[in-house]
Amino acid sequence: MGKVSMTGDPIARVKCVVDTCEYWGNGDMCKASSIEIQPPNAKDSHETDCATFSSKK
Ligand code: SF4
After folding, report:
1. Which of 11, 53, 55, 57 to mutate for ligand 1's pocket (most ligand atoms within 8 Å of CB)?
2. Domain boundaries, the chain
């Protein structure tokens, strides 16, 4: 079960290529109602991740 609701209106200004996420949509769009990126005090991009990711069933 996803963490947030799905929207038919993809998040503008966000490109996501994680096509294994249930919120992912064609055209590298995110269809989650909102997203959360973690963690605080990250030192580089490899340390960051999308906490809203939910694996496709
Ligand atoms: S929830 Fe995160 S990982 Fe999933 S499509 Fe949106 S931005 Fe990508």
Report:
1. 53
2. 1-57
Tell me: cis bond preceding 10? Omega within 30 of 0 counts.
no
Whether 5 and 23 have beta carbons less than 8 Å apart is answered as: no
Q: Which residue's entry shows tokens 């960051």? A: 48
Residue nearest to ligand 1 atom 8, measured at CA: 16
- Per-residue model confidence as pLDDT tens digits over 31-54: 999 999 999 999 999 999 999 999
Ligand 1 centre from 12 Cα, in Å? 13
Beta pairing partners, 37 = 50
Prediction pTM value: 0.91
